[in-house]
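Exercise 3.2. Students should predict the tertiary structure of the chain below and write it as structure tokens, then compare their answer with the key that follows.

Predict this chain's 3D structure.
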Amino acid sequence: MRFYEKQGVPFHSGFLPFLGHYYELIKFQKKNNPTLHPLIEYIQTYFDQKPPVFSGIIFSQRLCLFVNRPEALRELFVSKNRFFDKHPSSGNILKKIAGDSIAFQKSNQIWAKKRKVISSSLYKQKLIVMLDIMKEIVLETKDQWAKQGTIDIVQETSNMMMTIILACAFGRQNENPLINYKEKGEIRQIQLGQALSTNLGRAIEREFQPYLIFFPELFPYYLSILDQEVKYNAEQVIEYIRKIIQIKRVNFAQTGHYEGDDLLSVLLQDDVFQDSDQMIIDECITFFIAGSQTIAVAISNFLSYMAQSQEHENQIRMEFGKLLQNYGMDIQKLAQELDLRKIEEFEYLKCCYNETLRIEPPLIISSSVQLTEDQQIAGVNIKQDDMLIINIYQIHHNKDQWIDDEKFIPERFNPQSQYYLTPAGTQRDQFSFVPFLGGKRICLGKTFAENAFKIIVPLLMNNYKFVLCDDKQKIQKPFFNAIMFKRPQVFMKLERIN
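Answer key:
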């Protein structure tokens, strides 16, 4: 800590031996009941909404530097990106859930090979097949929503994306089966998608158990009741995917080919993955977690912001009406019309998509990262292997970069708008918007997520208007991101329009 303090990096007050700043965080949480994220609001409050490039905090025995401004990202993602890598902390927390997937694995030859294979499975012809699956499920889901009339859009978009991603990963015949799930000592059956999503939240929650705060080296061991349930539930998911792999291998032995273009079939046919079922399982689970939650959060938040602003919604509908021959008409024909070429024409929708990711990024902080060698970043000497966390939410809300940063203004991504500039009228730093990070560790699902959003939104809005039921939420929607322990309820009514 003193090494960084001597360089002007501020650390939060209230440091205690062994506890670090944990006690201060607990006090802050009890006093303020933060709705965003305890760490982010703690940093914002401590620095009066203007945090420095780096700020320091210590979790028991672990030092962590938060990256709060874009100046450091320019070096981390570009000029010194070769030294930028994953820190083991987040990987240890989610080890039982995601194993050694490329999302948490350090950069090496195996990581590069796996990334190349998975990247190729998300582009061109295979992506087209996935988008066709997506259209089918969206049409089925929307029909169910229309019959219900009123839905919790947070829960329903999550369920829809779980079904879509599971179908893309395992094939439609396995899109959301029931598996065993243990909670508070009782075993019941829930859908695979719900199990995966809940497992993620509970795995993150276990980090805040007192015995792991004091002894972080015990992360690999699952000792408490919560730990045991996390382990049991993770094993149920793994066992189900392992059975699917066995079935596909048996079918291959009988027919000589793998059926379908789902991710699992793609991985089973690649030399990198052929000899390791566990490697395949890790990547399938990570694809589900990253894909379903990011897109579900973006769609839910977007529909809420549209319901709050008739002006933005009208502009979206005008763009759809201008570019889509079948918008407002037969939804089956509209689904056929929507393809990768057509959705590239959606300029205002893309502005709305980017603004949704900016104002409420699905991942408000990055997983833990580090430098592989001692380096100077933004004037601060950073030691090799020290943990860094990129404060994505703060970077998207720095007041010297964004005009009216707390307002939903899609025009800030239109180069012709005054909102495209900083409050001082200068060009905004290109690293002030990093929902998918950058450099060699940029999110592989970036293109998939954007294309999915552009396909799904016109289908959902066709002939229907989403109306917020709660008058308070019409003015201020509850904050929603992918790593919240408790998700908000946002009820919306579907009203048919001509």
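Discussion points: Residues 277-308 form the longest helix (32 residues). The mean pLDDT is 91.
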